[in-house]
Amino acid sequence: MRIAPPRRQGLASDAEVLDRVNRVLGPVEVAEDLTAQPLVSRVLRVKTRSDEHSIVKWYSALADYQRELDALTSYTPSLGSDAPRLIDHDDTFQMLLQSEVPGDRATTLGQDWDPLIHYRAGVLIRRLHESAQPVRSDQFARQCASRFEDAAGAVDGVVEPHLLSEARLLIARAMDLETMLLVPAHRVNHPKNWLVDPGGHVRLIDFAHSEYDPWIVDVFLLEQDYWRSDPNLKVAFLSGYDREISSEDTTLLRAHHAVMAVRALAAAGGSQVTKAEKMRARDMFDRLLGVTLF
After folding, report:
1. Dihedral, CA atoms, 72, 78, 84, 90, nearest 10 degrees?
2. Is 93 exposed, middle or buried (0-12, 13-18, 19+ CB in 10 A)?
3. Spans of all domains in the chain
4. Homologous superfamily of 14-100
5. Alpha-carbon distance 214 to 255, whole Å?
6. pLDDT band at 1, cuts 50/70/90?
7. What is the distance between the alpha carbons of residues 92 and 22, in angstroms, rounded to a whole number?
């Protein structure tokens, strides 16, 4: 069992982390700053004097660091070169040094609407889900209920109480299921986290949200952003995954949707949230219940 590292406030400095990387790889320089959420994490591409590239990531939240460390230690090795390889880590800085995965994001390349890419992603996600033994548990729905209530208080006055009650019913239906199989899920399975090389090979990155969940959780973002516009992408992904969505899967997916929707609405009340993010949150809740809130 890993001993919890000393807690630090905020992100470690670039200088601290790069000094640690220098001790592992030798002298490096920053080739590119890949940071997308600077309050959450820092991500740099670094290169050695021999022009070998690696990725260094460090987190402000211990939970994000531990989830990705667990994934890179326990799940992604079975994916081989189709996911990052852990080179080193530092608990004090909450830092992960990992191999660079070849390719560009499918969203950058405009390949996020390609059925073949979705098929190959389905194959890859199935491999991730089978990278460790599944666990039978009754905790998923209970966790959904807890997370829903944590966020629900922040949407008082934004969502009518009877609509929140309807959303709670979706979670209650999931709680009626006695147990379900949980697998190592990515939880942000989306073309932005698929890297595609010139030959069309798909690889998977960014495991900071990874944890054991029902397999269906890994179709949530695809359903929200892609399947609703092009059902052929659903067919392609599920063909690659080699599974159909059952009624039980749908019940679990709707419980997860309820949590994600109310969390998105709660976050949309923040002062630095963009108009597009607010609209996305509203749309997510609208689609959950088939109503228009605003």
Report:
1. 20
2. buried
3. 14-100, 105-289
4. Phosphorylase Kinase; domain 1 (3.30.200.20)
5. 11
6. very low
7. 16
Is 18 in contact with 30 (CB distance < 8 Å)? yes
CA 149 remoteness from chain centre: 21
DSSP 3-state of 178: coil
Q: Please, where are the H alpha helices in the chain?
A: 14-25, 62-70, 106-109, 115-129, 139-152, 161-175, 220-222, 231-241, 247-267, 275-289
**CA–CA dist 181, 183 (Å, integer):** 7
On the question of pLDDT at 2 being above 80, the answer is no
Topology of the domain comprising 105-289: Aminoglycoside 3'-phosphotransferase; Chain: A, domain 2 (3.90.1200)
pLDDT single digits (tens) 89-137:
999 999 999 999 999 999 999 999 999 999 999 999 999 999 999 999 9
Shortest CA distance to 54 belongs to which of 88, 8, 23, 77? Answer: 88
Query: Rounded to whole angstroms, how far apart are CA atoms 205 and 194?
Result: 7
Q: In this structure, are residues 75 and 184 in contact, taking their beta carbons and an 8 Å threshold?
A: yes
What DSSP string runs through 38-101? TTTEEEEEEEETT--EEEEEEESSHHHHHHHHHIIIIIGGGGGGGS--EEEEETTTTEEEEEPP
The Cα 36–Cα 44 span in angstroms is 10
The DSSP secondary-structure symbol of 229 reads: T
Length of the chain counted residue by residue: 294
The dihedral through the CA atoms of 232, 203, 140, 222 has a sign that is negative
pTM over cut 0.90 = yes
Give CA angle at 204 (87, 90), nearest 5°: 25
Q: What's residue 220's pLDDT?
A: 97
